Amino acid sequence: MKDSKPAITQHRKDTDMSIWTHITGVIRIETGKELTDADIEHLLGKRLPYKASQSLKDEYENNPDSFIPKGLNFCIHNHHTKYELNSCIVSIFGDIDDYIYEENMLAWFRERLKNSKLNIRQTCITITGLYNITWSM
C-alpha cells in the first residue's frame, strides 16, 4: 500500500454492472464526557445524507476529504456506569455503489484513527466488495 493519501472518491467506470462495497465497523472510545455527532464528525468527517441540500453537495464536491465516504453513516452509543470509565461505541455502516478500492477505504479508516486525539480503545472494520478485508486494532 502506498504512503500517499488514500483516494476515497475513486469509482469504477469500466462496466454497466453495479458492484456494491459493504462496510461495517465499530470504534470503542474511552472518554470523560459524552460524545456528540460533532465529535465523531471531527474524527471521521461530515455525513452526506441521501437527501442533502445542494449547498452540502457542493461542499462535498469541493472538499470530499472533510466528509465520511459517500454512502456511509455512523451511530453513537454513550455508555455510563458507576464503576467504569465512560465509554462510547461508534458504529459505522453503509453500502457504496461501484466502489472497488477496498484497500483505499481501509487506508482512509486507519488514517482517521491515527490522527485522532480521542482515546480509542478498540476498533474493527470489515469491508466486503470484490475482496473481503477485516482489520482490527
How does this model look, in words?
The protein has about 140 residues and is α+β, with helices and mostly antiparallel strands. The protein has three helices and five strands, in the order E-H-H-E-E-H-E-E. The chain has a five-stranded antiparallel β-sheet with strand order 2-3-1-4-5, covered by helices on one side. Strand 2 (about 70-80) and strand 3 form a beta hairpin. The longest helix has 13 residues, at about 100-115. The protein is globular, with a radius of gyration of 16 Å.
Map the helices and strands.
Blueprint: E1 20-30, H1 37-44, H2 54-62, E2 72-79, E3 87-97, H3 102-114, E4 119-128, E5 132-136
Antiparallel strand pairs: 1-3, 1-4, 2-3, 4-5
In short:
This protein is of the alpha+beta class.
Task: Identify the notable features of this structure and list them briefly.
alpha+beta, 3 helices, globular, disordered N terminus
Give the end-to-end Cα distance, rounded to a whole number of Å. 18 Å
Q: Can you count the beta strands?
A: 5
Overall residue-averaged pLDDT value: 83
The rounded Rg comes to 16 Å
Strand content: 25-35%
